[in-house]
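Batch manifest, entry 17 of 40.
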Amino acid sequence: MRLRGAVRTGPVAVLEIDPYGHRLRYVRHIAGALGPGRCLVLTSPAALAAEEFAAHLPGLRETAVVLPGTDSRSEVLAAAMRGALDRGAATLVVPDGDHYVLPLLRLLLRRPWLRLRIRLLLMRTPAVLGPEHLRLATLVKPVLVQLLRLFPQVSVLFLTDALGVVRRRPGFSGIRPVRDPALPDPQLARARPAWLPAPTGGVTVVGVFGVICTRKNVPLLVAAALRVDSTVLVVAGRMEAPVREYLDSDPAARRLASAGRLVVVERLLDPDELAAALAHVDLVGVLHDNDSPSGILAEACLRHTPVLVLTGGWLARVVSSTGIGATTDPTPEAVAAAIYALARDRDRYVAATRLSATRINVDHFATHLAGSCGDAKRWGPRPATDPRR
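Output type: structure tokens
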């Protein structure tokens, strides 16, 4: 998708220092919408060296601006602003905006006339009375976001699910939703990855994909799989250390692996390989315990594969609204029963994914992040002094 009517007086700077998960894929969509030579990537040494950068942004490696390596988000933001202004950018896009809410507010309180438009995307908008454990950050974040919106340079948006089911978040009034981007592709026959178990009648293959973190509740799926003899569990993607340690040492996981019913692939899956894996499993486990959208859910829907999610959260709303999967309580018995029921009625869920897949695209995301999101106010008078000082 290419933006129409985009301002062409300078590049749009995009700040992303974390290479993992969906983040550099988001930058790729923004760069694709802007067109050649219009995207200036501001990144970290670690991100530039990561295989994810080579996979998603190979054409932007030479022009990327490498920021000083630091753990301080305030220092990263200040360096990114200097880099953007020095290279003639009028807009700075921050797709991973949650880390920068407080640093940006502090900076703007010191320099309120900063001549740089900023688009900040919130990926996490937990509700105070939602399913997640209440934390101080959950209470404070909505207040800080509303204070940010007082500055005319700033447009704040929140990431919603790819199907656009959730359009408002409690405590974040006035913040526009941006759909999680997923790229539809032609319905080509994809070769089954060699590491997936061969299809066998009566066997249900359950996949867990992406960045495999503790929030994906792999132990819950392992415990459920032990209760359903016809289930094979596949865990594939970049794995965080606690999950890897669990799979190596837990008796239940080792028992499942020794029976040939647990397949572990620990590495980054390229987009084609991930798409093929999603298309060839029977269902995808998205048992996230955080109240937020899921890119894997969207990718599974595009491949016409049903999903299993936990009750009570964001993903349950999406599934209940669209019929693309089933919900379950967070107990091994409930998950096992849900896997059995979903596999039994799989054709009905597949039909729902075919209908819902037509609503998924990258255009909504790219337009709001790379183009005009319509939330910025009119500029005030230009200051007499350089705002970078």
